[in-house]
UniProtKB/TrEMBL annotation:
<feature type="domain" description="60S ribosomal export protein NMD3 OB-fold">
    <location>
        <begin position="199"/>
        <end position="269"/>
    </location>
</feature>
<dbReference type="GO" id="GO:0000055">
    <property type="term" value="P:ribosomal large subunit export from nucleus"/>
</dbReference>
<dbReference type="InterPro" id="IPR048899">
    <property type="entry name" value="NMD_SH3"/>
</dbReference>
<dbReference type="GO" id="GO:0005737">
    <property type="term" value="C:cytoplasm"/>
</dbReference>
<dbReference type="InterPro" id="IPR048898">
    <property type="entry name" value="OB_NMD3"/>
</dbReference>
<dbReference type="InterPro" id="IPR039768">
    <property type="entry name" value="Nmd3"/>
</dbReference>
<dbReference type="Pfam" id="PF21193">
    <property type="entry name" value="NMD_SH3"/>
</dbReference>
<keyword id="KW-0175">Coiled coil</keyword>
<dbReference type="GO" id="GO:0005634">
    <property type="term" value="C:nucleus"/>
</dbReference>
<dbReference type="GO" id="GO:0043023">
    <property type="term" value="F:ribosomal large subunit binding"/>
</dbReference>
<feature type="domain" description="60S ribosomal export protein NMD3 SH3">
    <location>
        <begin position="97"/>
        <end position="138"/>
    </location>
</feature>
<dbReference type="Pfam" id="PF21192">
    <property type="entry name" value="OB_NMD3"/>
</dbReference>
<feature type="coiled-coil region">
    <location>
        <begin position="170"/>
        <end position="197"/>
    </location>
</feature>
<protein>
    <submittedName>
        <fullName>Nonsense-mediated mRNA decay protein</fullName>
    </submittedName>
</protein>
């Protein structure tokens, strides 16, 4: 640490290869607390799968660390004095789940949530998991997650491009019957109802025939799958998905899950511009991850609205004129207080 820095906020997100969380966090934090973010002296990236914010004013670092806990699920936020210095170190660990991750839930989590194969569709103060075969949702906050932690089975670096050859929507009564059979225990009924309404508008179950784009001209292999993107995809579209046709190997899923895996699980549609204007895979990690973040905003208007809403609120455009005092040397408030604050 250089001499001018009094405090560092170390933010870590283990087992995550994308930096989209960083970009999301950056946008939200800038728009919700301009005064604190303006005090950042330097940002160090890509240190142990995370990044560090350096401050000259310790209380700014303290408030910034608390702000992160209000934006995304975190495990811990605490302060300590670095030995033989008068500098503070704040540590924040973000839940290692990103939007678009495919997760095979462990049996102990399945027992409480219901589905065993889910897709993460949103990461906010809580993160949302979607069962792509029933359209049911589960919600977890950081406190619930760290009681029985898990990580993704596939992430967006493993996505494969498919072309949709045919797609047939499930009949409404067929989908309704399947939804009625699935009972998921959730604590927050309002969230469940809101998610069900959102899923009904955005997703619809369909049976599709797809082929890997890389197989074009090499073989005629096709896959018959069920997808939640029935409202979005049509024949001729290109989509990104996870290739499960060869299984997931040891440790990727339990035996029962492995025996019932579909050949592929589609995650998102690829826009026409991306298909026809593709140059080559972007080599620069930051540019590639920023493009993923930008694509997330394009495909999820609600995420874009959430990020820009604080900026549209004039009450958030302020300058902090109060005193900046050093925080007490003690652990932060309990995690529940951070999440409910």
């Amino acid at each position: 640490m250089e001499q001018g820095w009094r405090s560092v906020v170390k933010v870590r997100q283990q087992h995550v290869s994308q930096l989209r969380t960083v970009f999301h966090l950056e946008q939200i934090s800038v728009m919700t607390n301009l005064a604190i973010v303006d005090r950042v002296e330097r940002i160090i990236y890509d240190v142990d799968q995370g990044f560090s914010f350096c401050f000259n004013i310790t209380s700014c670092a303290w408030h910034f660390a608390r702000l992160i806990g209000e934006i995304v699920p975190v495990k811990s936020a605490w302060a300590m004095i670095i030995p033989r210095t008068e500098r503070y170190l704040f540590s924040v660990e973000i839940v290692p789940i990103c939007c678009g991750d495919l997760i095979f839930l462990p049996p102990n989590v399945v027992a409480s949530l219901g589905p065993n194969i889910v897709i993460c569709t949103r990461v906010a103060k809580t993160f949302t998991l979607l069962d792509p075969f029933t359209l049911t949702h589960c919600f977890l906050d950081a406190h619930q997650y760290w009681k029985a932690p898990f990580t993704h089975s596939f992430n967006r670096t493993q996505l494969v491009e498919y072309v949709v050859l045919d797609i047939v929507l499930l009949q409404d009564n067929q989908q309704d019957n399947q939804d009625e059979e699935e009972e998921v225990v959730e604590e927050n009924k309002e969230k469940k109802d809101a998610a069900a309404a959102a899923a009904a508008k955005k997703y619809r179950l369909a049976d599709a025939v797809v082929a890997r784009v890389k197989d074009t001209g090499n073989n005629d292999t096709t896959f018959q799958i069920r997808t939640h993107l029935g409202r979005i995809l049509k024949p001729g579209d290109h989509a990104l998905g996870y290739d499960l046709s060869g299984g997931v190997g040891e440790g990727g899923a339990d035996t029962n899950t492995n025996n019932n895996l579909p050949a592929a699980i589609l995650i998102s549609k690829i826009s026409y511009a991306e298909v026809n204007g593709r140059v080559v895979a972007v080599k620069d990690k930051w540019e590639s991850d920023y493009q993923l973040f930008f694509n997330d905003l394009q495909q999820d208007p609600q995420l874009l609205f959430k990020i820009t809403a604080p900026y549209r609120n004039p009450n958030n455009h302020y300058t902090y004129d109060g005193p900046f005092v050093d925080p007490p040397i003690r652990p932060f408030d309990p995690l529940e207080d951070l999440l409910d604050g």
